[in-house]
Amino acid sequence: MSKEQTPIVEDVRMIVEQIYKRISQSFVESYVDVPRVSENRLALLYLFLLEQGMTKERASVFCTATGLIQLGLDMHEKVMNTYDESLAAERNRQLTVLAGDYYSSRYYQLLAENGEIRAVAVLSGAVQRVNEAKMRLYVAERDGKLTSDVEYWELRNTIDTGLYVAIVNEYAEEEEARRFWIGLLRDTATVESVIGEWEHLKWQKQILPFGFSRFLLQKPGATFAHVLASVETKALEMMGLCEQMVRTLHPAETRNMLASITARYAHRVNRLKRVIEEM
């Protein structure tokens, strides 16, 4: 890692530490698994806010608050419709819901303490849009009414990036910056999603596909091999788009940080390819 990257990387690591510190509850964590924070998405949001002229301290508050809500939303997404009829399963379900509520509430406290009332409204509106997209995707998948790849990714990207996009929409000083950062957030989220599904399909074949893979498998005549090839193609396509966008960035510190993110994606893709070649 270059010296140019180190300050930003350390800032993002400190933001992630702050997020987990604010939600730490040993009792809850003994019953439920806390979702992972998307460090890449937080890094992009942090870089965007710095580019808009925010101080590191204020940008850290925004990123921490956004990460707290995202964890709450992700926790709620882990709640299943059916559970075992055991006390432990019931407790897991209840605590998952309560933990999601608790994580989300911490963002409000943080922003209020720092006088960021405008940001409270921005993120509250984003939460509503994310939840609406979740319901639309759930109903469409249940009823088999997803009509195209575009429709799937429109909903999936709203769920994954809605909070971050809302901040960009509100605080971007120029339309060109707004379009660029929203595009980068959505494209990198798609890369993360399809690489995750690709890994899932290659290494856990006995588990039912999810997300985009499940949508593809519902198409008439679809086979597992076809789904796997489609996911691989989508991953490589989105990787190429992200790498093109990174090359246009200035200053060098921002470009180097984003290059390190795409390099991590490339490492996961290359590892998958090696596994395929060895099979």
Would you kindly provide a written description of the structure presented here, covering whatever features stand out?
- The protein is an all-alpha fold and 279 residues long.
- It is 79% helix and 0% strand.
- It has eleven helices and no strands.
- The protein has helices at 6-23, 26-29, 39-51, 56-77, 87-113, 117-143, 149-171, 175-203, 211-217, 224-247, 252-278.
- α1 packs across α4.
- The longest helix is centred in the C-terminal third of the chain and has 29 residues, at 175-203.
- It is globular, with a radius of gyration of 19 Å.
- Residues 1-5 have low confidence and may be disordered.
- The share of residues in extended strands comes to under 5%
> Which class do the helix and strand fractions yield?
mainly alpha
Measure the end-to-end span. 32 Å
Query: What is the string of helix and strand elements?
Result: HHHHHHHHHHH
Largest sheet: none
Give the uncertain stretches in residue-range form.
1-5
- What's the β-strand tally? 0
Count of discrete alpha- or pi-helical segments spanning 4 or more residues: 11
Helix proportion: over 70%
Shape: globular
Offer a few descriptive terms:
single chain; 279 residues; mainly alpha; 11 helices
